[in-house]
Amino acid sequence: MLRMGSGAGFSSDRLAPAIDLARDGALDWLVFETIGERTLAFGHRDRQLDPSRGFNPQLAARMRSVLQHCRDNKTRIMTNMGVANVPAAAQVIIDVARELGLKGLRVATVEGDEVTDQLTDETVLFDYGNKKISEVGRPLVGANAYLGCDAILPAIATDADIIITGRVADPSLFLAPLASHYDWQLDDWNKLGRGTLVGHLMECGMQITGGYFADPGLKDVPRLADCGYPIAEVDTDGEVTITKLETAGGGVTERTVKEQLLYEVHDPARYLTPDVTANFSGVNISETGPSRVHISQATGHERPEKLKVTVGFDGGFLGEAGISYAGPNAAARARLARDILIDLLDRIQGAAGNYRIDLIGLNSLHATAHDNSTDSEDVRVRVAMRTMDRDLAAMMLWEVEALLCCGPAGGGGYRGQITPSVITHSTMIDRDAVAPTTKVYTA
Amino acid sequence: MTRQIPLHKLAHARAGDKGNISCVSVWAYDPGDYLLIKEQLTAERIKQSFPRLIQGEVVRYELDQLNGLNFVMYDALEGGVNTSLGLDSHGKSWSYLILSLPMEVPENRKAH
After folding, report:
1. Side by side, which strands form the sheet with B58-63?
2. Does the distance separating the beta carbons of A283 and B14 come in below 8 Å?
3. In terms of CA atoms, which chain B residue is nearest residue A424?
4. Three-state SS string across chain B, please?
5. Is A365 in Cβ contact with B88 (below 8 Å)?
6. Tens of pLDDT along A88-133?
7. ipTM score here?
8. Out of B8, B25, B61, closest to residue A267 by CB
């Protein structure tokens, strides 16, 4: 039985439960998955601003907290926290290991996912109406191919304590240790399909142990504040039991597993990764004990011919500002504030069409979907604007703040911020256009 | 005779996103309600319920052995996480849009 735990399911995921797993999980592998399309593009931007950055900002904090436990328990670490700067991330881990006195700790890198230099103005973006990169009209920030299990296996073979990668397919972070441990052939599609399901169920951390799930009165989750990360116990055929530490909050149930089974999945019979075309459509899910759920019957077919590539572009700036109205007639005052802003912002050259105004408390998240609006005496006017011109965003913030003295009665709680923005699209690349490499660093 | 109750009382759901595509899986709490949900919660109904939001097609996949349906909604995220100016640019709350749709259930069906 190979025992793998999740220590993060996204870039800002919680740390304490990862420490619990590192200490008490009796794990063979602890896996931190932290890359999304946005975080990858931000990684490129960070590296452009400072060549020593571009990896996950929480890398050092996470390593400082778990490395000693992992060494004590002979738990290896797998992570994509290298994001857009894998060598710099490896050096950070080495530095932390030395600081902790963990002499001899070894880090193996997986590089070769960055394909920025191989794209041209003519490269076709399949998720953007097959338009070319030149037609996006924005500066290219960086592009990365989704590497698979085959790129990670050489790093595992070095016996390094920690494997650090950039963009690899999320499930491959779990599939690679399985394929290595059980010596699965890389064309044994059924086993790769099952190992990919393990990775898919685990890659979002607590989304299978009670996170992103609770709905009071209908779907209650015990001790959600202390929710634990999941543990996968996987056998030689790739059948899996998902569980958690007994001491942790949350719970693994048939329902949490079902919701995660199809999370971000389109056709359940054709889940595409660099490793396999996995088929989740016939799986069985059964509760075998408290917070123990067994999942079987995933299968697989031949892997896709090409690799998917995420291409990041400079999205300029996102400006967001808000002001609130409460008490009698709050909705009418908020609507008046909105109308004033529309009038003024449309007079600012270029602002029309670049912004959106929502009335939080009446109808905001679902405002495009439907017109239903709730009665509320606590309404926040929220303005959002995306623009390449930072000054324009600043002008919008100013107009919202000015409502404090110039707008309807009782407006308060102004906040405004401008953050850099990235835009991502996708293309495909030939497998032989990437050449993954591995390098070992020793503390 | 039938009466209407929100799908929220009969099923749970989770939303995910890839680019400008939203997917929401819907799972019957009680296997006995699955057929009723499958019959009424069609891809066409989802598309027609939110015409301004869902600009593209809606495709439904069925996992009968798990009493679940998966809806893939194209061009349904106002551009997606990196482009939308909406507060919930991932469409994390789209699951509750679908769960708010009314279902016709038999008048004598016991309340949850």
Report:
1. B11-18, B21-28, B68-73, B58-63
2. no
3. B82
4. CEEEEEHHHCEEEEEEEECCEEEEEEEECCHHHHHHHHHHCCHHHHHHHCCCCCCCCEEEEEEHHHCEEEEEECCCCCCCCCCCCCCCCCCCCHHHHHHCCEEEEECCCCCC
5. yes
6. 999 999 999 999 999 999 999 999 999 999 999 999 999 888 999 9
7. 0.96
8. B61
